[in-house]
Amino acid sequence: MTKQVHLAAHFPGVNNTTVWSDPAAGSQIDFASFRHLAETAERGTFDFFFLAEGLRLREVKGRIHDLDVVGRPESLTVLSALAAVTTHLGLAATVNSTFNEPYELAKRLATLDQLSGGRAAWNVVTSWDAFTGENFRRGGYLDKSDRYVRAQESLRIVRKLWDSWAADDLIADQVTGRFAREGAGAFADDGDHFRISGRFGLPPSPQGRPVIIQAGDSDQGREFAASGADVIFSWHGTFAAGQTFYKDVKARLAKYGRSEDSLKIMPAVTVVVGDTDADAVEKAAYIREQQVSGPTALVLAELLWGRDLSAYDPDGPLPELEPVVGSSVTQGRVGYNDPGPIVAEWRAQAEAHGWSLRETVINQQNRQTFIGSPATVAEAINRHVQEDAADGFVLVPHLTPTGLDDFVDQVVPLLRERGVFRTEYAGPTLRDQLGLRR
């Protein structure tokens, strides 16, 4: 059976994928930028628009990381504004479960779901460092195992709150049109991290409850996604790696009484479209060079080595120093638990190809990339979906806010011609677009 491709749009924000020097680059915080990308995604009948989260600006040796100086808006606020200028596009927010309370999470997400007519999604993430926690009263830092325990408990409670208004039990007042039920919204939960009780303030939206997204490739993350997520947002560098991940995660669903269709696997990808394959390859090489400047290459290398590498020439050879685990040279970014093997691989690749430090960083970026003419890109995307390397993709453009324009104008029509991508939305809610039960 031919599978349908699912597509989503990621707003680049303060990411190393963004080409800040491009003359067409726009603001990362102006609403017009968010609106343009969202309206482009809806014109392309994408499933949802995805926003990341930053709870603290990244720092390098005590100074704000250069990509973060523009600031980081709060996701749910931006998506609430976008709900007013879109009609079918899903609105997905990354919201941290470590520094938010379940009732607060449930209320804010349910409000977006109501305002948008059933188009909200929550990307459930955990915090990984004490550096971020310094922005919060707890100074919060939890061991990795505890972070997932808290996240699972948060998700369980949030769902309990969303389900506390049982539609079948609601009694409609035929005169006023209002609903009332004894015990409506009542909840209570006593767990390892939370002990709460009360009444939840909102009935279900048209999609029942927001879609749950989970990002993570670890074994614990995969299990978390299999147990309760609707979409898993992942990273794979090759087609084969995607197939391996897909098979592993889908195989975990049965133990939770779930079908393979109940979880969509959507890796993040970058796409470079050119008039011809050769044109796209040349364009992609230029983009990679602009994405990884000399200073950026040093920052990314410092993250791996755990050392101050400012004395090194990014266009020179790799450092001969051995990496240090647990260093705080670069703060606010995920580090490496075991950098030794990765450093060894970098050195082997640099020696084999004659790469400088910067060239090595450019070529070791792990994100799956589709490069080619519109026909080549459409064929590659469809192959990944039909051969079970993914159910679809979250596109991360290199340019804000016009980075998806070429894809929507040139690639989407070809996917539609193949009969593997919708020409119109399946219904009013995000669950309709994803083919998920309400």
TrEMBL record:
GO molecular function: monooxygenase activity; oxidoreductase activity, acting on paired donors, with incorporation or reduction of molecular oxygen
Domain of life according to the entry: Bacteria
SUPFAM superfamilies assigned: Bacterial luciferase-like (SSF51679)
Protein name, per record: FMN-dependent oxidoreductase (Nitrilotriacetate monooxygenase family)
Positions of the Luciferase-like domain: 23-387
The entry's keywords: Flavoprotein, FMN, Monooxygenase, Oxidoreductase
Family per similarity comment: Belongs to the NtaA/SnaA/DszA monooxygenase family.
A family per Pfam: Bac_luciferase
Amino acids binding FMN: 94, 148, 218
Stored Gene3D superfamilies: Luciferase-like domain
